[in-house]
Amino acid sequence: MAGVKIMISYSKRGYSIFKSIMKRLYWCPRCNIPLLQDKCSRCVKNKSVTLKVKITPPGDIRPALGRDYFKILDLLKEFLGEKWNNVIPIRNIILLNKIQHIDLADEIIIDGQVIGSRYYDIHSNKWKFRPSYPIVYQMIRKRIGYYAIVEMNFLKRRYEIHKNRIIEYNFPDIKGEYVAVSNHKRNFYGLGILERGKRVKIIKIWRKRPFSWLEKNPTWRDVVEGNLEYLKNIEDEAVRFIKETKEKYNLPVVVSFSGGKDSLATYLLVKKALGKVDLIFNDTGLELPETVNYVKIFAKDEGIRLIYADAGDNFWRSLNVMGPPARDYRWCCKIAKLSPISNSIKKNFPKGALNFVGQRKFESLSRALSPRIWRNKWMSNIIAASPINDWRFLDVWLYIIWKKARINPLYFRGFDRLGCWLCPASQLGELDEIKLEYKELWTKWEKYLKEFAKNKGFGEEWIKYGLWRWIHLPEKIKIYLSRFNIDSSRYDGIRRFGDINIKEDNNKIEVKIIDSLIPFSKERYETFMQTIDKNYKDFIRYDSEKDVFFINNNEQSSLFIKNLIRMMNCVGCGLCIVWCPTNAITIEDNMAVIDVNECISCKNCVKICPIAEYIFSNLS
Ligand SMILES: [Zn+2]
Description:
Oligomer: single chain
Bound molecules: zinc ion
């Protein structure tokens, strides 16, 4: 599907939020390096003029690294053919800027110019390239790649140019491909799509402007040098912030360390401000092996304590109960992240802590709105603070290179977003990379998805297009798939857990467990009845023959249903342990067991249980 309109705009509100945090990117034409401010530290004496680079907000510029770098070269080769190197110079520095699209998409920046964009086509599972002016201009000048010179006084968007007006051309065999276009006067340039009958439809135009590539081919070290003044300034500011925050709260300090670049920069800054401190790492059970190794080696090299929170196989056990997680059904975060981290912090910092984290505004809309210091939503005695709140990807990256710090090797394999490898928030382009590079991991996941799909009677497109990533499918996905005659509405809003049937009738409620995936054993029932006896016994009755609970409806009944869900489906994630004021809960055989004598009926454990919460809120 070349030629598909690739920009899908943000909501107006999203756009204005991102625009408000946007920072300009500059370029030094003399050194041919990106600049994070309007000044080149290498050219102080030469007073060279810097250029502004026009990029799409929010502009979280990042470097193309390792495999990703070579993938871009391959894409350009594929688009321009053998002589690609006559159109575009080979550079060490290629920058990427994420833009909105149905899946992954980036602007590609070389020599201070957006030369085009790439986007991941989820139908063909391939990257596609769409050229901008610099490439189109060179293609026409040098007659390289697919082009058309047309007999027209000017070009206009949405024009469909008839083949009679095309003076000179080189066309592919198939329609739908991008074609560089210029008129015979050579004062207009455009990007067209080849249509049926050798017609070309213009989708973008530019008036002629002079353009040439820059001369030098610098390295990342040169980029650091050119940005040295800027890097020193942001470091000073962050160090000052860390010292002031420590003074204000005076709590033991711990740095959240995910193995990614942001937490690495955060650690380096905290170390500079306060000396060596503890790291806390949460192993979700879904980390790539390189990350786990890297974190352990890093802590050892630094000679610091690594607090290792471990979700064990929480995620995989919960799958049986919950079904695959989705963007609008993210039980996984609570079970594989929140629970182990909270337990670990409660154990190690019972009196509270100051937790520095590498959270950045550019990462998401919600983070764009987050303050720099906040109280942990779940544990009020934990203060979280992000020293690099408004740093860009490139700020972080250059800072790390400047400090010559040890970096997670996954970045050089082209992974720029680490974390759980099957995260439903991933784009298909990222998941396909996992599929290629970590066959064993992916096979395990795919096998699970296939079985789940089979049970639900889902078609293969549910997996191919990654539809498991949503319970309620976004409109843009439905529209996109309808182009291939796929009716995705049949996957929309389908529950993923074993069903519960709730009949409400006057003031009586009947709850029947239809297909709880964990057997509703006598033991579970007894444990349940014991622990809630003093809270609910007056208004519920269990008919073991029909396997139905009869409840007198009152203000407690929804809490009771949550409690029931919890008891039926508890996977022993242990989140409730953190919030039990009397420490009455222990985990036995992957199930939370409450000591009735210690229980004070506060029902915190029911209110915060992620299993109960997600299942209850997804009941009809
Ligand atoms: Zn310079």
